[in-house]
Design brief:
Elements (H helix, E strand, L loop, with lengths): L16 H15 L12 H12 L12 H12 L21 H25 L4 H12 L2 H7 L5 H22 L6 H20 L3 H20 L6 H33 L12 H5 L5 H5 L10 E7 L8 E8 L14 E6 L7 E5 L20 E6 L6 E7 L7 E5 L13 E5 L16 E5 L4 E6 L1 H7 L12 E7 L10 E8 L5 H8 L13 H14 L13 H5 L5 E5 L6 E4 L3 H26 L7 H22 L15 H21 L4 H30 L6 H6 L14
Antiparallel strand pairs: 1-4, 1-12, 2-3, 3-7, 3-11, 4-5, 5-8, 6-7, 7-11, 8-9, 10-11, 13-14
């Protein structure tokens, strides 16, 4: 029974010393002196704000991308015990004692360190020699720009790690498949490919480029499988379904999970609420939820409501009126109706309240039981404080002369009768009998007489039409007009009820007191996760901050030759500084390698067309597959930036240049194996490689003081580092 104890239990393991050594070197290289400087470095001022909001569970929207990367940075703060109390308002500001600097920078640094062994493994899986793989890893290790970017609370190193991990996982999967499909390791690597792809996209949307590249490569490989008669129809279907599950379904599910965790963590109202819909705001703790708690759900005749414009850009605003009238004549000489002004006001105010009235009845209170308003029914909107009716007629609006003026009607006993009937159309209805609901229903008001739609003219339209909001006589508030339906649909035509109560007072003075009173009834307005995800995702994709020229912004053309740099940090007294600068020798070599690859590939293709085969078929397949990964990775991560209308910085090029660096040992090994045919040529070529690699190390050491920020350099030494006139090395005036 216990016979197995008579022999010792032996565990054997293979240890790749190269891999272990590279991992250790990467950790030392990226983690050394990680807490230095104890000050805010460049975009830490941007990402730090979101980390603080995570610590305080306050909702925010970042239009730069999905939340996964931000959550990883926040995880570092959580592990370090950060309470979120720090004012992220200035680059170079000294961190207070409560900020765990090392912990906040740890995850980006670990990701940067792990890129070194992953690069080694990618070359091995591409069937290149361990010497070439070692060279690729060392080039990543000694790349100054990657070191700088990974040592601070920034996202690029995390993005690059997941991109490289996705490539490595797919290559592992592809190589395992050659001898054992559907094995445990086969499933592990294809699932890890999908997971890494979703993580890359979840950090920054540019991760989508590498994801699309891998999907294209996987599709090409599957296409070749279809032509292989060794695979049965059932087997091909299983392979197709497995790839669909691992490379599409699971990444999509993970992407959703990032938002689920994000929205679960950030349940409190915050500074970014105003760009979200009322329903979304009401689902957050505090803020609008505190105001709307206890509101009736169904809008009825006699309801007292505030109407918020759904567009919410450039700012949220509510349908508003006040006692002032439109001027008899505008500055351009056009006349007005001289009726009471109606505007869209960006602040909560008692003049934002309106009463929903049944045109066939005089009462302004809710009956018992309440009579809910349904889609398609006619209403009148009575301004709560002035008791005048919302009206529009064939008079040109003050700033938008091609649209109708909207006003609250004043009877001047002239030939301009009231036109105050509006049809309620629920845009997001499920059926034509839907009831108008507080917060949840998005409605538009169609004028019965003219078919014009009530519309708020946002700031962007003001700029296009007149260059400003209403003049001083309109208190600089936003214009509201009646827009013809023939001009098309726009979100600025859609409104939702935000605050709501059932009116009980028929007398005006009692009603004014009622308008200032809190509501009593309790009803939940919680949104489903998918509704919140859809809205938040749309905001991230469409919300655009005003792009401004930055001192260190650059064009995509500047990146290839590294004609630009970014000053990340400057010591206030010693002159020590940190710059985002690449290893000049490596970047130049990467450009030469890319050019050599393209020229050789073109030459080989022409020769093969003529049935001349300069290299063996297996070497050609290796050359093509390596180019698909390295050149393809460079192209998909670089060329799209020429189409982007955004402020660009040198760090946007780092994913692309990482792939280009991996191409250098690919080209070098190819030249050594197939073009250096004699022993003398091989020896000379190897000697040149050693000399070249020494220059890479020399450039790394030369720029290390501005990579790590230590030691501080003299003015002369700083001037010596300005290898290009376009570089902005900071030199203090003596």
């Amino acid at each position: 029974m216990l016979g197995f104890l008579k022999k010792p239990i032996v565990v054997t393991a293979e240890i790749n010393v190269n891999l272990v050594a590279l991992t250790v070197l990467g950790l030392i290289n990226r983690l050394w002196g990680l807490s230095y400087p104890q000050a805010v470095v460049f975009d830490e001022v941007y990402y730090g704000q979101f980390v603080s909001l995570y610590m305080k569970r306050i909702f925010f929207v970042d239009d730069s991308g999905p939340p996964f990367g931000h959550m990883l940075l926040a995880l570092g703060g959580y592990l370090g015990g950060f309470d979120g109390n720090f004012l992220w308002n200035r680059i170079g500001a000294e961190y207070s004692m409560n900020v765990p600097v090392w912990s906040l920078r740890l995850l980006p640094a670990l990701a940067g360190a792990l890129c070194v062994p992953v690069a080694y493994q990618i070359l091995v899986e591409l069937q290149f020699s361990h010497c070439a793989a070692l060279g690729a890893a060392l080039l990543i290790l000694l790349e100054n720009s990657l070191i700088t970017q990974s040592r601070f609370m920034l996202l690029e190193s995390i993005l690059i790690f997941f991109i490289l991990l996705a490539v490595l996982s797919y290559l592992k999967f592809y190589n395992v498949q050659k001898h054992s499909s559907f094995s445990g390791s086969w499933w592990f690597w294809i699932l890890l490919t999908g997971v890494a792809c979703s993580c890359a996209v979840g950090v920054k949307y540019v991760g989508l480029f590498t994801y699309m590249l891998l999907l294209a490569i996987a599709g090409l490989h599957f296409w070749h499988m279809i032509g292989d008669q060794n695979f049965s129809n059932i087997s091909l279907i299983c392979h197709f379904l497995a790839r669909g599950l691992a490379l599409i379904i699971i990444p999509m599910a993970m992407y959703l999970s990032f938002f689920y965790v994000h929205l679960t963590l950030l349940y409190r109202s915050g500074p970014h609420d105003q760009i979200m819909t009322s329903a979304f705001q009401a689902s957050l703790e505090g803020g609008l939820a505190r105001i709307t708690q206890g509101q009736p759900l169904e809008v009825a005749y006699g309801s007292q409501i505030t109407l918020r414009n759904v567009l919410g850009k450039p700012m949220q605003c509510w349908l508003h009126s006040h006692t002032n009238t439109y001027p008899i004549r505008y500055e351009n000489g056009r006349g007005s109706s001289h009726q009471q002004q109606v505007t869209c006001y960006p602040f909560k105010d008692v003049n934002n309240w309106w009463i929903v009235k049944d045109p066939g009845m005089q009462q302004l209170v809710v009956s018992n039981p309440p009579r809910p308003v349904r889609h398609g029914q006619i209403v009148q909107l009575v301004h709560g404080i002035t008791t005048r009716y919302l009206n529009t007629h064939d008079v040109a609006a003050p700033l938008s002369p091609h649209s109708q003026e909207v006003s609250c009607y004043i009877d001047y006993n002239i030939s301009m009768p009231a036109q105050n009937l509006w049809r309620v159309e629920i845009v997001n209805r499920e059926s034509d009998t839907d009831v108008w609901k507080t917060i949840l229903s998005e409605v538009r008001f169609v004028h019965v007489n003219t078919s014009a739609v009530l519309k708020a003219i946002s700031g962007i339209f003001h700029f296009q039409l007149s260059g400003a909001s209403l003049p001083e006589w309109g208190y600089r508030q936003l214009e509201v007009v009646g827009e013809k339906l023939s001009k098309g649909f726009h979100q600025s035509m859609v409104w939702n009820v935000e605050e709501h109560r059932y009116g009980k007072s028929q007398e005006q003075k009692e009603r004014e007191v009622e308008l200032h009173s809190p509501t009593q009834m309790d009803i939940s307005k919680n949104l489903s996760f998918m509704a919140k995800f859809t809205e938040l995702q749309w905001k991230i994709l469409t919300l655009k901050n005003e792009e401004t020229e930055h001192k260190y912004s650059s064009s995509a053309l500047d990146w290839i030759t590294m004609d630009t740099n970014i000053a990340y940090w400057l010591h206030p007294t010693s002159g020590a500084q940190i710059h985002l600068l690449g290893n000049v020798v490596t970047w130049t070599s990467a450009n030469i390698a890319a050019l050599a690859y393209l020229c050789l590939s073109f030459w080989y293709l022409i020769r093969r067309r003529r049935k001349i085969y300069d290299i063996p078929e297996d070497a050609w397949q290796l050359w093509v597959s390596a180019g698909g990964i390295c050149m393809g990775g460079w192209a998909v991560n670089y060329l799209p930036f020429f189409l982007m209308e955004k402020t660009l910085f040198l760090y946007h090029y780092l994913p692309a240049v990482t792939f280009q660096i991996l191409l250098i040992p690919v080209v070098l090994q190819h030249l050594s194996d197939h073009l250096c045919r004699s022993v003398l040529l091989k020896s000379t070529f190897n000697a040149l490689i050693v000399a070249w690699f020494s220059s890479v190390y020399f450039a790394y050491c030369t720029f290390s003081p501005v990579t790590y920020g230590h030691p501080a350099l003299s003015v002369t030494q700083l001037k010596d580092l300005r290898w290009k006139d376009s570089w902005n090395i900071l030199i203090r005036k003596q």
